[in-house]
Amino acid sequence: MKIFVMSDIHGSIYYLEKALECFKREEADYILILGDILYHGPRNPLPRDYNPKLVAEKLNLYKDKIIATRGNCDSEVDQMLLEFPIMSDFTNLFLGGKRIFATHGHLFTEEKFPIGKGDILISGHTHLPLAEKEDIYIFNPGSIALPKGGNPNSYGILTSSSWDIKDLDGQTLKSILY
């Protein structure tokens, strides 16, 4: 199984469409969205082609493929537009014998997470791509729409044995095997 992971769309139809092209190119089975889907948030600049309503409409076409968590910019009003659930602060997945705790990252962080040694924490929120191994694996796909730290717009690919972070051209930025 292959899971396409993205975070921090922030209402950009331009970058969502780019991400969905990547999802198709990657031939992934599911899309895991780590929050901050429609609203840009008061601390962020407006992303390119900001259109939350169109983002919702486009994502609804993939509702049977989407697993999502709530970000700090997501609200009940957003849920009214989306045809897949987004109001959970986290979700647990199991892949390749590993427990995956997926969250946005504003409530559960590297310092505060309910998983054990060898498990995987995936979060967004920081807009910074990350692939690390400590007692647990810590992954962040970066941001699809508003990357920080001089990083390119990016997404993650999760399989039963690897985590890759790629830019929108499909070039691998970071990779880790587990």
TrEMBL record:
InterPro entries: Calcineurin-like_PHP_lpxH, Metallo-depent_PP-like, MPP_YfcE, Phosphodiesterase_MJ0936/Vps29. Its cofactor is a divalent metal cation. Gene3D superfamilies: 3.60.21.10. Residues 1-160 form the Calcineurin-like phosphoesterase domain. The keyword Lipid metabolism does not apply. The keyword Metal-binding applies. It comes from the Bacteria. This is Phosphoesterase. It comes from Psychrilyobacter piezotolerans. Belongs to the metallophosphoesterase superfamily. YfcE family.
